[in-house]
Specification:
Chains A, B, C: Keywords: Transferase. 3 copies of one chain form a homotrimer. By secondary structure, the first copy, chain A, is an alpha/beta fold. Chain A has helices at residues 2-12, 32-50, 73-85, 105-111, 130-146, 166-180, 206-215, 234-247, 257-261, 275-287, 290-305, 314-318, 347-362, 364-376, 380-390; strands spanning 62-67, 88-91, 116-123, 155-161, 190-195, 221-225, 250-254, 266-270, 326-327, 335-336, 345-346. In chain A, strand 3, helix 5 and strand 4 form a beta-alpha-beta unit. The longest helix of chain A is centred in the first third of the chain and has 19 residues, at 32-50. Chains in contact: A-B, A-C, B-C.
């Protein structure tokens, strides 16, 4: 497998030793080398699987998944990644469990982790809560490991929080790398991360924040566009600005989809709720003020409705580089005339890019597997070589 | 293992190459050789397991299960089959997932299938919907595979739809083969697939339809019996009639349980709702007319109540060949005095055949495993020989 | 692995051949040797895992879990144990399944067990029901096995019933053995199993009953303490008394926490509902008298409130041996000022023992695995030696 040895070669030139026994919570907490290591290991795992070589490094072990919000894609991506490495998913469902009954996070985190290698968490509903919860769990299992309670230190993988959605943005990045033929080719490319109209309300900020936080690391020209009042978390915008400086890329904010699409190589039109609204909703939930939530929802839907022209359609696409930019979305998209009357994207544009969108999503299981692999395995290169030498078939054909 | 080599020998004389990468949706879409291949591989897998040889051909891979109706038996049979081959079940639960939220079938089918080898679906509630849904999923993953979205093409296995229940009817057939000592001994045997009284309402048509659609392939004399108005789907009845012609068997419709039981070798008394009623119910659901549904239910229960004498009891059984026909049921049965006041079968008859009924159900995991095996493995005989030569124990005793 | 060979040596001096193909329902149905075998195999499995040797003795097979009451710890302990041995958990959820719809226990038990090696059951809500249900399931699969319906005989493991909580008490015992440096050192040690105040109501009796039923086997001085009217099942108290006689230990009942704590080496303060109340609640549920249940709850909470001084705090602990007894709990505990206003234990005492409490819980997965191992494997010593000789890594580092 020629390309695998090339990728191992590449891996050997990257410094990622600090990923060992560490979590993956925010892309901007990782070095550029560490991000490249994830991308490279993801490609290696994909290539090994396609060559029917089993990458099952665990003969036993659990992968805990905790979804505090609905999920199909990420749930199955996590299940696929765990399975690819030999881990068995155990769902921590607060319905089934006793967490609801006043049990502390620390205790539960340890109680479920005696044989857990990884804990994947989605907690994206409330500002200031999701990522904080993940860190609380991380601290709990780290302490449990140090205290000799846990025989291994489970890795926390962020499956979407209030701040970032690293498994999504990294999958998106790997898609871009393959689409443009190499990470080096992303330098200078313009990506438009723009708000788009949706009849639904309260969509998380983590995807747009994840995209501007990550793509600015790659020397890209990142334009964030949204109607006035639909701003993201200020800290994350600051991080994007700083990243662009560091990487020699660009970061700017526009107030129209047109401006953002202008000559863009990549467009990522997606709906989200204003940061201030997500914050207010969080406070209303804390107070249990459900009338307040209803009113906020009405207000936001009315506000959204003012911006129905923020739709990614054929005319918009004409503005992009050669009218031929790559259209991206984390899915599911609100498709005009398909999943709703008026939405984020026209059926025509969506159809044109459907296969690419599916491929984009297809990287996620490998990205998650790579995140787990790099955190659990002390010497990834040596272990990958062992896997190749063992040459155990994934599927006894 | 003498009998395994005999069965491999038999397999080598069957033509089943077209099963590779194909779904299993209706038994009458399969050739006689293909059905025999499923039966033979099921027996081989059973024999290997009983000889403590692991048939785990997958070192990783997912088996997606989607149950749009309750299930215990089939759920566990599918889980057992997947596990026997080394696949891990991932449940596509529309409660947990986002499907409910307007996501297209095509997209979801691909999103969950990046590492899926098989998708087992139960969708039996609504006429014209279940089997159609399975074909929609099949088309979606076939296209995803051709577009390079999916690295493998997941097999769709029909775990009960509105038309057929192939994993049930094939397990029933394997039971008959073992009971009568060979598939050739089924020729000319009379099987009575008769309606029976049940206090419950709206039971699917897929079991009786599956039985008349399959057993008529085996040269059996199949008698379908039901009260007037309780007819099955006309197309399926037509298929049964045609099958009987082809196979040199017989197919007829009787209007009394007595007539059907007369000199029967096998009886399969089971309740079902009239086809017209299932169709009407589907339309009422489409319209959201829940009063209409309530009224229909009342009407049907009243209609059912006219036929309480359609019970499989000792006197009925006396009419069968030497009063000793084999009693079959897909379970759970409505047992008079046990699970209901008056039902499909008397406690006495059920008790006499209980062990046989349990064995009948016990073939289902192997049938499902065989369906998966024959669709995934390009050269089943060679792979089975590899399994035997590896001789890996299922259980390290 | 020196200590493993020592433990194998110990194992070879124990008589546990009767555990083969037997259930684990009550500790007092097992001989002292059998209990020691479980403890020893648990330690061996733990040691092998820590030495990165895979103990996956099953290449395929299901572990059915049925939780008729909420559970986090035990659910994950069972999942961990099954996974450690190579079994895949399949959840028998009466919500999902058809059991609710009048299907007999016998039938369901067989239908889910065609490839099941173990069935773990929690059924602790109703007096006279839980353990009885487990025996019914056991009888069903035993008969299925004898009738040739099942190819293997699934082991029933009691994951908490109305009478005992053997996986908890055995994990507690293993914790004591490690804490005091050997089972022989438990002889003569005083353990106080005392009631403690909790604002919640209707906690099962199985933990205190399990503790007095097991620790009296070890030659310990067991003191059961509770307010008047909070007695346990008389039969179990009788068993404890008898055990103490047999083992040369002591068993007594005190009416104050102080008296029980006096000079104790170990304290186990935990809330439970009075036996008479649990019995009455069971009858009320049988009658469907929900007002009666509400009234009983009120009454019990009021009764509980009289005993808020039954709290394990610093002053209470001062009464114990050198003010330094080991504090135990099955978790989650009602911690004063943390999970409730006033509870079973002060935050200060809980904090001091938190790590020990977590370690106590950490033995449960190994205890469950050992119970399964000793029931499934005909010659455990030989199999463990095979595992060591194979030396297959659990984790390919």
């Amino acid at each position: 497998m020629k390309n695998v040895s090339e990728m191992l070669n590449k891996l050997s030139n990257l410094d990622f030793k600090n990923m060992y026994n560490k979590d993956f919570l925010l892309t901007w907490e990782k070095t550029h080398d560490e991000l490249e290591a994830v991308l490279t290991v993801a490609e290696i795992l994909k290539s090994l699987r396609m060559n029917n070589i089993s990458t099952r490094i665990f003969d036993s072990g659990l992968a805990i998944s905790q979804f505090r919000d609905n999920s199909t894609r990420t749930r199955f991506s996590f299940a696929s990644a765990a399975n690819l490495l030999g881990l068995t998913v155990a769902d921590l469902d607060e319905g089934k469990s006793q967490i609801a009954h006043g049990e502390t996070v620390r205790e539960t985190a340890n109680m479920v982790s005696f044989m857990a290698e990884v804990i994947g968490i989605r907690d994206d509903m409330f500002i200031g809560k999701g990522n904080a919860y993940m860190r609380e769990v991380s601290k709990a299992v780290q302490q449990g490991y140090e205290d000799g309670v846990l025989e291994q230190r489970p890795t926390i993988v962020n499956l979407q929080c209030d701040i970032d959605h690293p498994t999504q943005s990294m999958a998106d990045l790997l898609h871009l790398i393959n689409y443009f033929g190499g990470i080096e080719n992303l330098r200078g490319k313009k990506i438009a991360m723009t708000w788009a109209y949706s009849p639904s309300y309260g969509k998380p900020l983590s995807v747009p924040q994840g995209i501007i936080g990550l793509m600015t690391r790659m020397g890209m020209e990142v334009v964030l566009a949204h109607p006035e009042g639909y701003g993201l978390m200020p800290e994350v915008v600051e991080i994007a600005r700083e990243n662009a400086k560091q990487s020699g890329g660009k970061f700017s904010i526009a107030n129209s989809m047109q401006e953002a699409f202008e000559n863009a190589d990549v467009v990522y039109p997606k709906s989200w709720a204003p940061f201030w609204a997500m914050e207010m909703r969080t406070q209303l939930y804390d107070k249990g003020d459900f009338d307040g939530i209803k009113n906020l929802e009405k207000e936001l839907l009315a506000e959204n409705a003012k911006y129905k022209d923020w739709e990614c359609n054929k005319d918009m696409m004409k503005l992009t580089k050669n009218g031929n930019a790559l259209y991206m979305h984390c899915l599911p998209a609100d498709i005009t005339g398909v999943s709703c009357k008026a939405g984020e994207v026209s059926a025509e544009v969506f159809e044109k890019y459907r296969v690419e969108l599916y491929k984009e999503a297809g990287y996620k299981p490998y990205i998650i597997a790579a995140m787990i692999f790099l955190s659990k395995v002390e010497n990834p290169i040596k272990t990958i070589e062992k896997i190749i030498n063992n040459g155990k078939p994934r599927f006894l054909k």
